[in-house]
Amino acid sequence: MPELPEVEVVRAGLEAHVVGRTITSAEVLHPRPLRRHLAGPDDFAASVTGRTVLSARRRGKYLWLPLDSGDAILGHLGMSGQMLVQPASAPPERHLRVRFGLSGGPDGAHGPDSAGLELRFVDQRMFGGLALSSGGAELPPEIAHIARDPMDAEFDDDEFVMRVRRRSSGVKRLLLDQTLVSGVGNIYADEALWLAQLHGDRPGNKLRRADVVALLAGVRTVMAAALAQGGTSFDALYVNVNGQSGYFDRSLEVYGREGEACSRCGSPVVRVSFMNRSSYFCPRCQPRPRRRSS
DNA sequence: CAGTCGCCCTGCTGGC
DNA sequence: TGCCAGCAGGGCGACT
């Protein structure tokens, strides 16, 4: 369930606790999360061992750790992935998939556990995964097609508006298209559409420019609120995002609220099936398009 | 090329 | 009580 704000919390945690350390060992406990590393788990482990982590970066929902070899560890949390920094002595998590031994670090010799820390990739459902991106320190070629996110200073608003207005797909589908804008998932898409008072089935090429601008503002509002809350949920050694940021439940206007009153007009929130998932919206504030594009 | 659909995974929940 | 269908869903391969 992690969307951009949750992934950003993980990135910040990695920056604080992993950057500057050297990987002394790597152990892959389940092959599935390494499926994108075609050379296999053993090659992955051998390639990262002995390398130092230079930084922690993110594009959309992808994370990568540039290494001093010029390569990078590329990761995606999928639905249920977590990155944990734990003492090596901590008992293995139930869904522990990959563990990295760490040494050194920003604390130098002062960190009490700096020689006994591990970075752990834990993922119950294994939609996520890790891979070594060859030469991918600056931007892994595997994710070159992923757009910037709307909180990125270099995100191009005008280009986004133009591209959306050239597409005939429903605007919710476009919001979830990571090549147009990254970091938006099913939950925040519904929330942003509610804020902009747009139905997700409205074709992009039938929207006014002002509609798309309002939608982009809605995305930023939702993400900023989630970032503000998620940013407080980690501080110590423990980097953990489990789909819970504190933002969930408390602040969602429509997602997961079928039958509850819309806070703006009082109409009951409606749930419909969408791409084998769910969409939630207010039928009065977000009226369906009059004619479906066909 | 744009658009759409189905699959990958595990665990929890609800209905019978 | 036990079993199974349904649901959660990001991203990508395959198809039209």
Question: Could you explain how this protein is built, in words?
Answer:
The protein has 294 residues and is an alpha+beta fold. It contains 6 helices and 10 strands; from the N terminus they run αβαβββββββααααββ. A 4-stranded antiparallel sheet has the order 1-6-7-5. Strands 2-3-4-8 form a 4-stranded antiparallel sheet, with helices on one face. Strand 2 and strand 3 form a beta hairpin. It binds a DNA duplex (16 and 16 nucleotides) through residues 1-3, 32, 35, 61, 76-80, 95, 123-128, 167-169, 173, 176, 178, 185-186, 275-278.
Q: What's the helix and strand layout?
A:
Layout lengths: L3 H14 L3 E8 L12 H8 L8 E3 L2 E5 L5 E5 L4 E7 L8 E9 L12 E7 L5 E5 L23 H8 L6 H5 L10 H11 L12 H22 L39 E5 L2 E5 L13
Antiparallel strand pairs: 1-6, 2-3, 3-4, 4-8, 5-7, 6-7, 9-10
Helix pairs in contact: 1-6, 3-6, 5-6
The structure holds a DNA duplex (16 and 16 nucleotides).
